Automatic annotation (TrEMBL):
Residues 21-110 form the STAS domain. One of its GO terms (molecular function) is anti-sigma factor antagonist activity. The gene is rsbV. CDD domains: STAS_anti-anti-sigma_factors (cd07043). Pfam families: STAS (PF01740). This is Anti-sigma factor antagonist. Belongs to the anti-sigma-factor antagonist family.
Length: 113
C-alpha cells in the first residue's frame, strides 16, 4: 500500500496510490493511515481517485482510520470512482463520511469546516 501525504491550508491530504483497497492490503492501509495522521491538521482528506475497487475489508480499514483520529479531527473522502462511490452509498457509509466528487471540491469545502 502506498500513501502520499501533503499538508495545505490546514488540511492533510492523503492520496492512495493503488487501484484497490481489499483484504490483502487492509491491515497495511490502517497502519499507514495511523502513521500519516499522527498529529497535524484537524481535517484529513483521503483522495481515493485512483481506487477502482474496495471490499468490506477496505471499507472497514477506512472506518477504522476515521475512528483512530482524535475526537476533534475529521476524515473526508474525495474522488470516489463510480464503483467505490456505490459501495459507500449501498453500505450507508455516505451518512458517516463527507463524500466529495473531487479533491478540488473537498478543498473548496474547507472553509465550511
Amino acid at each position: 500500500m502506498s500513501l502520499t501525504s501533503t499538508v495545505t491550508d490546514h488540511v492533510r491530504i492523503i492520496t492512495v496510490n493503488a487501484d484497490r483497497i481489499d483484504a490483502a492490503m487492509a491491515i497495511q492501509f490502517k497502519e499507514d493511515m495511523r502513521t500519516e495522521t499522527e498529529g497535524g491538521p484537524d481535517r484529513v482528506i483521503l483522495d481515493l481517485s485512483t481506487v477502482n475497487f474496495i471490499d468490506s475489508s477496505g471499507l472497514g480499514a477506512i472506518v477504522a482510520s476515521m475512528k483512530q483520529l482524535e475526537a476533534n479531527r475529521s476524515l473526508d473522502l474525495a474522488g470516489l470512482t463510480p464503483v467505490v462511490d456505490k459501495v459507500f452509498r449501498l453500505t450507508r457509509m455516505d451518512t458517516v463520511f463527507n463524500l466529495f466528487p473531487s479533491l478540488d471540491d473537498a478543498l473548496a469545502a474547507t472553509a465550511d469546516h
